[in-house]
């Protein structure tokens, strides 16, 4: 199988691709993420994914996969929390509610430009103060969009509608379909 570039430092994206058996190397984008929350979330994540993949391609000259994930609640984008108090605010806001996770993906190569996104609805359980404080104290949500990981062993999520791996950070159903054609 041909090798490609993952233009992301995310350990979760790396793990998902390794589990699927792909041959890739990690070359994270060196560009700062320009946060423009005025864009619709699907446009925002697609733009960031394309920017990351394009930056890596400009340096490596081989097929590059970029991705970006955000959580939206009531139309507002929740990125990674800046600190534990913000993480706690995010979890309190998400408690008992439905929200959306958008992951933009981009595959860039010689004469190749594929950009899209996947949207998954996630419904949270009602979270107790104790559960929120314990989760936040362990720092589990600090490096994750929306301040939580669906894969963590905590009863945060009641159910999801759509792609589970999208909520983790890479919609593998779609990525597998695209990479199968390109590699």
List its salient traits.
single chain; 183 residues; alpha/beta; Maf protein; seven-stranded mixed β-sheet; 6 helices; 7 strands; 36% helix; 27% strand
Descriptive account of the structure:
The chain has helices at residues 11-19, 41-60, 84-94, 129-137, 164-168, 172-182, and strands spanning 4-6, 24-26, 64-73, 76-78, 98-109, 112-124, 157-161. Helix 3 runs antiparallel to helix 4. It starts with a strand and ends with a helix. The protein has a single domain (4-182), classed as Maf protein, CATH 3.90.950.10. Helix content is 36%, strand content 27%. It is an alpha/beta fold and 183 residues long.
Low-confidence stretches: none
Number of strands: 7
Oligomer: single chain
CATH architectural group? Alpha-Beta Complex
The end-to-end distance, rounded to whole angstroms, is: 7 Å
Please give the count of helices.
Answer: 6
Bulk shape: elongated
The helix/strand order is EHEHEEHEEHEHH
**Strand portion, in percent?**
25-35%
Q: What is the total number of structural domains?
A: 1
Mean of residue pLDDT values? 94
Highest CATH level, the class: Alpha Beta
Structural class: alpha/beta
User: Largest sheet, described in full?
Assistant: 7 strands, mixed
Portion of residues within helices: 25-40%
Rg calc: 16 Å
CATH T-level fold name: Maf protein
